[in-house]
User: What shape does this take?
Amino acid sequence: MIKSNKVTLALLDTVAMFLSFIVAIWVRYFLLLPILGSELKIIKYSLYFLYAVAIYVFSLLLWKEPLIEKQSYREILARTIEKNIIIFAAYIVFFYVTSQELVISRVIIACFFAGNIVLFTLFRIIYHNHIIALQKRAAVSGSNENGNSENLSDAVIDGEIRHVYIIGSKSIGMYGGYESFVMNLFKGHENNKKIKYHVACKANGQGFMEVEKLPGASRINDSEFTYCNVHCFLIKVPQIGAGQAIYYDLRALRWACEHIEKNHISRPVVYILASRIGPFEKRFVKRIHAAGGYIYQNPDGHEDWRRKWNPLIRKYWKFSERYAVKNADLVVCDSKSIEEYIQDEYSSYHPKTTFIAYGADIVPSNLADDDAKFSNWLTEHNLSGSYYVSVGRFVEENNFEIMIREFMKSSTDKDFAIITTDNPKYAQELQQKLQYKKDKRIKFVGTVYDAELLRKIRENAYGYFHGHEVGGTNPSLLESLASTKLNLLLDVGFNREVAENGALYWNKDDGSLATLIDQADKLTPQEIEAFGEKAKNRIRDNYSWKKICDRYEEIFLRYKL
Assistant: This one.
C-alpha cells in the first residue's frame, strides 16, 4: 500500500524553512535596511538557522505522528504550528547560549515564523493530496489487473476498514422509515469486516432511543452503546419545537467530524438522512473532505409537500433540499421517481445520484393462528377473524381521513384495524369531521412494537390500506407486500412503482376507495392468492434486504465518484 514517508516530509519542511528564512532576511536587510540600520550579522543568523534546521530534522525523524494522509487539513495546520514553536525555541536558545540575545531581530523571527506556517502547511497539504491520489490510482489499477470491469476509483484496499457515519435517524427501531432502515442495514452487515458503522440516536424527546428496549444493545457509557457491532452515540436535544430536528442533525454531524479528526480516520463516508440541514452543512463538508471523505445524502421524499408544515416551513424544506443536493458527493434516492426529480430539479448542480430502495423480507411469522399472543391481541381490540389493516404514522399526508371516510361508506362487514402512533389533536379533528366512533368497525389499536406479532397481524389481514402520498419507497408498504395478500394502495407514482400489478389502486375521488373495498370483498380466494404471489414476487425480485444491503456495501466500499 502506498504511504507517506518521513524523509520526504523532512525534505519538504527543510525547503519550506529555507524559503521562509531567505524571505525573512530579504525583508530585514533590503526592505527595512534604511529604517532599522545594518547592525545585524547575516552570517550569524544563517549559522544559527542551520543549527535549528538540523535539530528539527533530527527530531522529525524520531517524532511519532499519524501518516500525513490520515490527517485532516485542520490537524496539519495544528501540527505545523506545534513544530514551529519547537523550531523557534531552539533558534532563540542559540542566541542566549552564545550571549547574542541583544542582536535578535524581531522582524526576522516574525517573518520566519509566518513564512514557515504558510509554507509548511501548503507543502504538507499538497503531499497529503498527492498520496491519497496515488492510493486511489493504485486501487483502480489493482481492480483492473484482477479483471474488475467496474474501474472503481475509491475501493477499500489492503484490509482497510471504511468508517460510515449515519446522521438523521432518531433511533434504531421498527417505526419510522429511517429507523427501520438502519436497523435492517445493521443486521445485514453485522458480520461485515470491511465497514464500521457509527450512528447518531436521540437521547431524549419524541422518538428518542430507548436502549434498554432494543434487543442485543449493550451500553458502553451514558452516551454510547453498541448494537450489531455498530457504534451508536446519543445526542441530547433541547425541546425547542420543530427546530430540535435541525439542532439534532447538526450536533450529530459535528460529533461525527470530531470523531473522524480525533481518531485520524481516513476516507470516511458520512450519510445524511433527510434534507433538514442543507444550508448549514458546508463547513462540515469541508472538514469531511479534508479527511478524504465523502458526503452521501438521502433526500427522502417531497418534505415540502407535507400538509403538517406551514408555508414558511415548507419553503425552508425546499431551500434546504437544494443545498443538501449541492453539497452531496452522492445523492441516494429510495425511489426512481425521486431520482428523476432530483436530476431534473437540480440539473444545474449536475448531481451524482443512485437508486437504492428500502427492503423487506418474506419471512412467515413464528406465531400460529391460535397463538395466545395473537388471539389475545384480537380479543383486546374486539376484532373479528376478518379485518382490514393500515400501519403508519397518524399524520395528514398518510390520508387516514380519506381511508376512514371511505371505509364508513363501504358495505363491508369486516373491521378496520388502524395501527398508528398517538396524535390526539388529529384524532379529535377527524372525530369532529367524520364522527367515526359511531362506526363500530373502526378500531384504533395503538402501536405494535413486537415484530413477530405485527407480521402475524399483517398475514391474517384480509387486506391492507396504504394512503401514503409523500416520500419515496415506504417500508410499511414493502412489509405489507411481503406479508399481506391483498393490498389497496393510493394511486401515486411511488406506490405504483413499488407494487406494480401486485395491488389494487384507489384515488382521492369521493367513493373511489369505498367502491374498491366492496369489489375487494367479492374477490375469490384464488384471485386473492394471485395478488399475494405477485406482491411477494415484487419483494423477491427487487426489495429483499439482502439485495438492499449488498447495494449499500457497494456504494460504501466500491462506488466510483
In short: The longest helix spans residues 106-145. Residues 6-140 form one domain.
